[in-house]
Amino acid sequence: MPDVESEPPYRNPALPVEERVADLLGRMSVEEKVAQLHEQPKEFQIRDGRVTDQSLEETFKGSSYGTISGPFGDEARTIAIHNRDAQEYALAKTRLGIPLLTVIETLHGGLALGMTIYPQTIAQGATWNPDLIREMAGLIATETRACGVVQSLSPMSTLARDPRWGRVEECFGECPYLVSRFVVAYLEGMQAVNPAEEALPRDKMLCMSKVIAGYEMPRAGLNIAGASIGEREMRSL
Question: Residue 83: is its pLDDT beyond 90?
């Protein structure tokens, strides 16, 4: 166990979070702060199907990134090993030892081979049963967190308003009230607590509810195309 008296304040878990954050930010260079805004696809760390000291060094070059994601579709055990190796590198071999935020898609199950797959989000909304979705999200969190993944890129809080849009299946439905109830249930099941106020349980995950309002109504239904939405319609989303 490290000697907390010889450690910098940001490494001391007994200190208030605000004090630790202020100390860490004061030690970071501009480049290190910018890197924390960067998401590094895990594919860049893999050579011949493995994460090695050399591949990690080539990827990170002694610096840390804010987030690593994927590789989506790998076996759950492989993802767990890759997450462990990358996290150990970030903690031990970067200047400040800032841990990585590991992320994955979990709309209807962790996006990895061997994980449980549930019905897609549009089918979840058709159940009209938020309690069931809360239970499902809790199970997804437990299974995915075991792979060393901390953050979920779910749920979708957007509305299914244009059937031409290629991501309609990721939405709970078209009604703002129905979608809000399912998003809340999903968050409660996945996180169990308010992460801003309590420590996240080891079998739960942080959520990133997405996406920005209006994203679901692109011109001609083309994903990531521009959206032409008036104020009245925007307020109905």
Answer: no
- Residue 83 CA to residue 114 CA, distance in Å, equals 17
The pLDDT tens digits for 35-73 are 999 887 766 666 666 777 788 888 787 778 888 886 667
Tens digits of residue pLDDT in 187-206: 999 998 888 788 889 999 99
Average pLDDT over residues 14-26: 95
C-alpha span between 26 and 166 (Å, rounded): 44
Cα(183)–Cα(23) distance, integer angstroms:
35
Token pair for residue 135?
A: 């239970």
**Higher pLDDT, residue 91 or 197:** 91
C-alpha span between 14 and 214 (Å, rounded): 43
The CA-atom distances, in angstroms, between 117 and each of 77, 107, 212 are 16, 9, 26
Q: What is the pLDDT of residue 191?
A: 95
Domains (ranges, CATH) in the chain?
28-104 (no CATH), 105-237 (3.20.20.300)
